[in-house]
Amino acid sequence: MEINNEAELLETLKLARTERKKVAIIGTGKHSNKSADIILTTTRMSNFEIKGAEVIARQDRQ
Predict the structure, then answer these.
(1) What are the E-state strand segments in 1-62?
(2) What is the model's pTM?
(3) 3-state SS class at 4
(4) Whole-number Cα distances in Å, 38 to 9, 16, 34, 49, 62
(5) In angstroms, rounded to a whole number, what is the distance separating the alpha carbons of residues 23 and 40?
(6) Residue 17: C-alpha distances to residues 10, 23, 47, 52, 56 (Å)
(7) Quick one: which of 1, 12, 17, 4 has its CA closest to 57?
(8) Which are the contacts of 17, defined by CB distance < 8 A and separation ≥ 6?
(9) What is residue 51's DSSP assignment?
(10) Model confidence pLDDT, tens digit, residues 48-61
């Protein structure tokens, strides 16, 4: 699943938590080979961090 902004990321994480699903957030590196119930890619988001229930992010402009 490709995430475009912090609102989408936060909503997906909230839904996964209520449904008790495992989430993997991947980027573009070799370490990105993960398995989970929901796999998110944040390649459109250049900078983000998750602090508790808050997602702070910036979307790349192309």
Answers:
(1) 23-26, 38-41, 45-51, 54-59
(2) 0.63
(3) coil
(4) 12, 8, 10, 18, 27
(5) 7
(6) 11, 9, 23, 13, 19
(7) 4
(8) none
(9) E
(10) 677 777 767 655 55
Q: How far, in Å, CA of 45 to CA of 3, rounded? A: 8
Q: Residues near 16 by Cβ (< 8 Å), separated by ≥ 6?
A: 22, 23, 37, 38
Structure tokens at 29: 């590196």
Burial annotation 23-53 (CB, 10 A radius, 16+ → b, else e):
bebeeeeeeeeeeeeeebebeebeebeeeee
Specify whether the CB–CB gap between 48 and 33 falls below 8 A. no
- pLDDT tens for 2-39 read 888 878 888 999 999 999 999 888 776 666 667 789 88
